[in-house]
Amino acid sequence: MSAEIVTQDGINEVASLLLPLHDKQLILPNVTVAEIIPYRAPTSISDNAGWLLGQLEWRNIHIPVISYELINGGSAPPIEGARLAVINGTGVNRNLPFYAVLIQGIPRLAHITEDDIVSVEAMHSGPYDQMAVSLSGEQAMIPDLDMIENELLRYIG
To answer: Where are the domains of the chain?
Structure first.
């Protein structure tokens, strides 16, 4: 499944979502996000990783729930008004078809061309931030989903 579309004038665009976090926003291709669901408290599965908030049942499967801020070394985000972005696994490991990321607010759709993305220096970049970008003057982080999934698999097998 490709996220790239070609417009009438021949420009390649990627339909993307800006996912609001507590202190920044992530940008992901639209096809990476399976669904946005209301927040519900996950069941604890690990005492070792504070960023692994637990797991919840979604579409009859149990998926892990993470805090992007905490895995990236930041502070705990508020739960009030939170939602969960269910992320499609990259397919590297069959044990992780989906996982959820705690987000703040409602994501916004953005159609992005290569020219729209300008790499910038991030003030609060963490180990799971692949690149900081500016999109029409708005900053966003491109997360390193492979690293996140590998870290998740260390705790959930």
So the answer is: 4-156
Pairing of strands 12-20, 61-66: unpaired
The whole-angstrom distance between residue 31's C-alpha and the CA centroid of its chain comes to 12
Report the pLDDT averaged over residues 69-82.
93
Q: CA-based Rg of the chain, rounded to a whole angstrom? A: 16
- pLDDT at residue 122, rounded to an integer: 63
In our burial notation (b when 16+ CB lie closer than 10 A, e otherwise), range 85-119 reads bbbbbeeeeeebebbbbbbbeebeebebeeeebee
pLDDT of residue 16: 94
Strand partners, 157: none
| 4-156 placed in CATH 2.40.50.180 | yes
